[in-house]
Amino acid sequence: MSNKEELKLGIDLGTVNTLVYANSRGIIFNEPTVIAFDKETDEVVAVGNEANDMVGKTHAKVRVVKPLVSGVIADKNAAIRLIEYILNDFLEHYQSAKLKKSTVLICCHSDLSGVERNALKDIVQGFGINNVLVQEEVKAGAIGVGIDIYSPTGSMIIDIGGGSTDVGVLALGDIVVSNSVKTAGNHLDAEIKKYIKMKRNFEIGMSTAERVKIALATVREDLVEEKEMVVSGRNLTNGLPSRITVKQSEIRDVLRKPFQTIINAILKVLEQTPPEIATDIIENGVILNGGGSQIDGLKEFIESIINIEVKLSPYPLTAIVKGTKELLKNNGDYLVAPTD
């Protein structure tokens, strides 16, 4: 990368994972949105995977923080320190990069308020970067899976992330209709954890709940062969460490209500979609993106309700940050299709 070349960064600052794209370098960071501090010195002791491994296992001298909750910055200082770590690590490896002359595009969910969008911009501008863009995740995600959102042909994408589920209809380079709900991966984990505590009198951590979701989550009514998983935690009857077996049918039933919320969000968008664009969606189908798209039977479940073909994203975990690469080419201008 020459000294004269402008550095362009795309940031998908997600509730669960943060991904960063750099021009000429590709994806330079793809790790959990977690940071750990020494309580006495306030120094960063771990970031990303290392910090995530500490969740639920810390002692009194270490504080582990997840800066975002439901797609919104909950701890601004921790978010700043996380981005600072990523940028400094990048510059250490690519010293020719000129950070202050950079263009940074950061993604957010579609119903983020103006105040919340400005908070995202402020964090990045605090590093001396003036050209900061904020774009919706559904737009970047649609581009990332290969949809030409700049054409008159309408398209629809459902992105089930960690903190929010975003549903968007796009045409002519921008969002026509969108909806966002805070029912997503983290909420599913919390529901599993709550169920096991209330119904099985057994306490597990959020990381264990996430592993249960990944292994057993399904929306299929008929299970050909029911899966089971042994989980470790604390027996609330005697307070001792123990193990229990969790069945897939239990998890399916727990997740019925959250997925109904997601279905309602999808239906709301479809009800507000202009008729001509609705015709395009019927012909071309709907894209299902994000980590939640990988839940067993979800594609067929959504199809059975909306009667439209649902296609799984080829890049469910990286489509958004891939889309930033294209949006950076035109500074997010919906009137100009990106060109190489």
TrEMBL record:
It is found in: Cytoplasm. It holds the Pfam family MreB_Mbl. Keywords: ATP-binding, Cell shape, Cytoplasm, Nucleotide-binding, Oxidoreductase. ATP binds at G162, G163, S164, E210, R211, V212, K213. GO terms for biological process: cell morphogenesis; regulation of cell shape. PANTHER family: CELL SHAPE-DETERMINING PROTEIN MREB (PTHR42749). Forms membrane-associated dynamic filaments that are essential for cell shape determination. Acts by regulating cell wall synthesis and cell elongation, and thus cell shape. A feedback loop between cell geometry and MreB localization may maintain elongated cell shape by targeting cell wall growth to regions of negative cell wall curvature. Belongs to the FtsA/MreB family. Forms polymers. NCBIfam families: PRK13927.1 (NF010539). This is Cell shape-determining protein MreB.
